[in-house]
């Protein structure tokens, strides 16, 4: 049975019993009211009956006086009889429901009429002067008509007194029953509601308590009691709690298994990271050692090439001063100025290229091992120094616009390397078909937050690059590339500043973006004068600063390099 039906029964049954008790109370009240009305009516009848003969007695006294004085004017012909008629009519109406008493009233009325007739005869005799026969009537006590009426009235009063006693007794009994009914109704109502409360407590209250206990057990994570019986909402809710408990236990088992797997994978990842870190350190040390070891042969090659060049110059002077045949001299000059000079030039170029590569390796190796001098850095001044250190003539290839640059937290020399490499990269990849333009600035905090998250928590977007539109009106969606953040130390919760270097150069093909920030990757191959290490070095420095670097580029329209740097001292994650 549903809770609604149970509630209706718990309300309906006591209400029906209450109505029955109220019916009994109302019935006893009706009986008591009727008994009180009857008793009051009896008292009114007795009061009226007690004074019924008073007009007749007054008239008898008047008649006696008239006889004695022989004056008929003492006899009342109207007022007394009008008063008596009103009283007896009222009394007859009051006992009309009692045939015996009504008959007595009729007989009293008959005696009164007889007495009235006799009074009329006395009055006529007095007026006629016939008083001889009236002397006896005036002195022999009450007239027989009045005496008979009094006897009949006494019988009426006696009967009415008995009836009044009976009605008074009935009234007392009715009031006693009414009081008993009220007491019974109050006690019965209390018992009914007590029984209802007991039923509710046993059937609903205990079940709700059990449901609450199961809910508490579920909250405490302990086993639930057995499911409640029944098909009401409480049983349904308890069944849901048991199902939830079962699912939670299953989820806990699955979570424990997954946690164990995660711990194992975390241990594996930690070991792999340690191995990678150790291998990275070993590789850096190897690169550093090899670079130093390769420097000595390169220095020797550079010295030997210079010595050979000096020897060739001396040999040329000796040939010029020697007395040789013209044909032989010509052949020797062609060998010295041709094959030998070209070989020496090729040797010098190869040695210079190898030295540049070794210097680049050393710079990358040192970027991971140098101790930084952490301080608040004036980025604007850093950019000025980076522009001043550009190769001669490189800065004149484009219009360079430097906007307001807020300070950052880091090492001044390292940050100068980042901006120097980004600016140098922008100037080396301008589009010869249009005037070059390079813009250096910083994003507002709202603009930086609008960029979608990239690797390592970086921000970027595939659809927001308001600066990469082409100068001739062409529009193309930018392609986004992020630095490989596998070794990043970017710390969440550290406030950062996002700077950018924007150009309108040739742009970067989408296929090249995934390897853009790797070392020795050159976009234009042999046409580029760089070694392909500038962006990799910038990435490494940004990572050591707890920041990140990425690019948005549209081929043929230009590129925008972003670098996020801390705005406050780094704190542990």
TrEMBL record:
Keyword vocabulary terms for this entry: ATP-binding, Coiled coil, Kinase, Membrane, Nucleotide-binding, Phosphoprotein, Transferase, Transmembrane, Transmembrane helix
SMART domains: HATPase_c
Catalytic activity: ATP + protein L-histidine = ADP + protein N-phospho-L-histidine
Biased composition (Gly residues): 454-463
GO biological process, one term: osmosensory signaling via phosphorelay pathway
Ranges where the record places region Disordered: 448-476
Signal peptide: none
Limits of the Histidine kinase domain: 289-569
Biased composition (Low complexity): 464-473
Coiled-coil zones: 234-279
A GO term for molecular function: ATP binding
Enzyme class: transferase
Gene3D superfamilies: 1.10.287.130, 6.10.340.10, Histidine kinase-like ATPase, C-terminal domain
InterPro entries attached to this UniProt entry: BphY/WalK/GraS-like, HAMP_dom, HATPase_C_sf, HATPase_dom, His_kinase_dom, HisK_dim/P_dom, HisK_dim/P_sf, Sig_transdc_His_kin-like_C
GO cellular component, one term: membrane
Places the protein is found: Membrane
EC number(s) from the headed UniProt entry: 2.7.13.3
Domain HAMP: 202-253
Transmembrane segments annotated in the record for this chain: 181-201
Name recorded for this polypeptide: histidine kinase
Protein species of origin: Paraburkholderia tagetis
């Amino acid at each position: 049975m549903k809770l609604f039906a149970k509630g209706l029964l718990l309300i309906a049954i006591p209400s029906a019993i209450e109505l029955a008790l109220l019916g009994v109370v109302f019935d006893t009240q009706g009986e008591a009211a009727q008994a009180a009305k009857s008793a009051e009516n009896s008292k009114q009848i007795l009061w009226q009956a007690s004074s019924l003969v008073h007009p007749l007695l007054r008239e008898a006294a008047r008649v006696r006086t008239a006889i004695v004085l022989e004056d008929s004017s003492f006899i009342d012909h109207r007022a007394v009889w009008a008063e008596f008629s009103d009283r007896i009519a009222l009394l007859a109406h009051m006992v009309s429901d009692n045939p015996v008493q009504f008959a007595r009233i009729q007989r009293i009325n008959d005696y009164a009429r007889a007495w009235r007739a006799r009074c009329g005869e006395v009055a006529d005799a007095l007026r006629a002067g016939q008083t001889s026969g009236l002397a006896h009537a005036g002195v022999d006590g009450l007239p027989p008509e009045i005496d008979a009426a009094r006897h009949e009235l006494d019988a009426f009063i006696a009967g009415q007194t008995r009836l009044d006693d009976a009605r008074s007794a009935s009234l007392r009994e009715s009031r006693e029953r009414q009081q008993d009914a009220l007491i019974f109704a109050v006690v019965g109502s209390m018992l009914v509601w007590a029984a209802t409360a007991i039923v509710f407590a046993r059937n609903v209250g205990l079940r709700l308590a059990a449901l609450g206990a199961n809910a508490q057990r579920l909250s405490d994570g302990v086993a639930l009691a057995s499911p409640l019986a029944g098909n009401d909402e409480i049983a349904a809710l308890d069944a849901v709690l048991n199902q939830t408990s079962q699912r939670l236990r299953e989820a806990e088992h699955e979570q424990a298994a997954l946690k164990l797997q995660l711990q194992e994978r975390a241990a594996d990842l930690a070991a792999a990271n340690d191995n990678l870190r150790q291998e990275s350190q070993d590789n850096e040390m190897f690169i550093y050692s090899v670079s130093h070891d390769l420097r000595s042969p390169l220095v020797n090659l550079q010295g030997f090439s210079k010595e050979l060049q000096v020897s060739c110059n001396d040999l040329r002077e000796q040939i010029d001063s020697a007395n040789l045949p013209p044909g032989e001299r010509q052949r020797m000059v062609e060998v010295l100025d041709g094959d030998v000079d070209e070989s020496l030039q090729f040797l010098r170029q190869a040695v210079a290229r190898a030295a540049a590569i070794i210097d680049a390796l050393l710079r990358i190796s040192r970027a991971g091992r140098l101790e930084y001098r952490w301080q608040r850095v004036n980025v604007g001044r850093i950019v000025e120094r980076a522009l001043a250190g550009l190769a001669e003539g490189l800065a004149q290839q484009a219009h360079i616009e430097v906007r307001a640059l807020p300070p950052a937290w880091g090492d001044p020399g390292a940050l100068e390397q980042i901006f120097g490499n980004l600016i140098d990269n922008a100037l080396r990849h301008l589009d010869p078909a249009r005037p070059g333009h390079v813009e250096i600035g910083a994003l507002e905090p709202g603009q930086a937050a609008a960029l979608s998250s990239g690797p390592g928590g970086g921000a970027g977007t595939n659809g927001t690059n308001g600066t990469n539109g082409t100068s001739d009106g062409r529009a193309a969606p930018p392609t986004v590339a992020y630095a490989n953040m596998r070794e990043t130390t970017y710390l969440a919760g550290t406030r950062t500043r996002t700077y950018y270097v924007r150009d309108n150069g040739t742009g970067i093909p989408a296929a090249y973006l995934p390897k853009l920030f790797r070392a020795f990757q050159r976009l234009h191959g042999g046409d580029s004068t760089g070694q392909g290490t500038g962006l990799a070095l910038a990435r490494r420095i940004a990572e050591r600063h707890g920041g990140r670097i990425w690019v948005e580029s549209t081929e043929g329209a230009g590129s925008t390099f972003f670098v996020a740097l801390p705005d406050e001292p780094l704190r542990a994650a």
